[in-house]
Structure formats: structure tokens, C-alpha cells
Amino acid sequence: MKLFDAHLHFFSYDFFISLARLVAQRTGEAPEGLLTRAAEKAGFDLPPRDPIEHLQRWLAAMDRHGVDRAAAFASLPEEAEPLRDACADADDRLIPLTMVNPLSQNGAAFARQALTEMGFRGILLFPSLHHFDLLDDACRPILEIARDCRAVVLVHCGILEIKVRDLLGLPRPYNIRYANPLAVTGAASRYPEVTFIIPHFGAGLFQETLLAGAQCPNIYVDTSSSNGWMKLRPDSIDLDRVLEMALGTFGPERILFGTDSTTFPRGWRSDVYSAQSAALERLGVSIPDRNLIFGENLARILNLRV
Fold this sequence. Notes:
CATH class: Alpha Beta
Mean pLDDT: 96
CATH topology: TIM Barrel
CATH superfamily: Metal-dependent hydrolases
Largest sheet: 8 strands, parallel
Helix content: 40-55%
CATH architecture: Alpha-Beta Barrel
Number of strands: 8
Number of helices: 13
């Protein structure tokens, strides 16, 4: 079985220092010092400044756990160039996707450059962070570019928490009103050629994610993270039941395994893989269907060799 991870944050030094600079503009402190204190408080290692050196740590972690490939995210536009450089040196094992803010002045131009010149295979949209609806006029050129480039579009829905922002003291501008998975259906209907992905089972809006998947065959779901949102539900839902319901709506052909791996020393989240693999086995999911979830679906929508 090939193991492909559909949801990995590269989290280069450029990602962290870009956030620290936002704080430094307000406080006058050195961004490097802010960043060092945040990392010490949270207990994660700051990545090396050289993205190729950081890449080697990710590849070593993937090798250790038998991960063949991963979709790696540039979680800020400022991280796109270092991720591109790393992926160019990764022997096609990391497939780059990048965040795009449709409301930024150069959002559409950046998306076009990323998809046509920099080798990115998809874009990440965060409506609750940037306060937009997928049917807004600002999103139209972004989604048209994705359609023309046959790129996937990942739309973060539900609860959003960016821990390093909290550690640095950045405000929480999230507006969950924009984060409903049902909002993805309008865009998915307008652009049926585009594959849309809702991560984390909708991050707390699971029922809405199921409805969106039932409505639009070009909406996929990814399974990434430990899915702590289950604790917020009034019922006693668990991972087995979540996967069972997702399979009933999306089928094994539209479910993408992901971990939401982020920082070291934790590295690649083998705990997420173990929990989900065990749950699928308990549910009696066949090996061919598990192969779809753990790799073949991602390979198909990103046109990767298996």
C-alpha cells in the first residue's frame, strides 16, 4: 500500500518569522526574540533558516514512518518561495499547495503565478480568517485560475486555531460565519471541474460537511488532525462513527487521509495514522477501499504517479 498524506504544513522558518514581524511592527521588539520565546513556550523546534535543510528533516520523518508522499502547504504566501525550493529538491515526494487571500491586492496575480510558474498544485482558502464568501467577486478569478490549471482548492471550514499566532499575541480575527461547509456548495456548483476539499471533516461542522458532500460530487473531505472537535458535539460521536458516516456520504473515493503534521520534534503524526487505520479496520473497510483513502485518491486528483 502506498501511503500519501493529503495535509502537511511545511512550516518553514519564513512562516514563523513572517508572523513574528507582524508583532514586532506593533511592539518594536526583535522578531527573532519573539519567535524564540514562542517556540520555547510551546515546546517546538524552530526550523533552520535554509528550507532545504528543513526539507531533509521532513523527508527523514516520512522515511521513518513509511510515508511515500505528502501534500505540503505553504501556510502563508510568504512561505511559497521556500516551499517551492524545497519541493524542487524533494524528488516529487512533497507536492506544494499554497494559501491565497482573495482579498489581498495581488491575490489573483499570486495565485496565477503559483499555479502556472511556481509548480503549485492547489490553493488553500481560509474564509473565516480573511472574511470572504466563496461566491464573492474577489474569489471568481482565483477559482477560475484553479479551474484552468486543474488545481485543487482546499477550503478551511469550522473552527480555526493557529497556535503560533496565539503564542505571539496576534489577535484572533476569525469569523466562523464565513466557515460553513455549505458555502462551498455554491462554488462547487459554479465550478464543477474543480475539486474542492474540506479538511478535518469540517472541523466541528460535520453534519454540514456531509450535506455539502451529498450535494456536490466534486467536494472531497480530508481526515486530518486528531479531530478534537468531536468533544464539542452533544452526542457521543467517535472516530469510528465519523468515518462510518463519511464513508456513507462520500464513499471511499472522495475521502483523503491526512495528518495535519506541523512542527518538530513531534514531526509526522503517526498517531493520527494509527488511529484512523485501526478505525477503518474495525469498520471492516476493504483493503482496496483503504488504499483509495490512504493514497490513491490523492494521486488521482493531483495526477501523481503511484
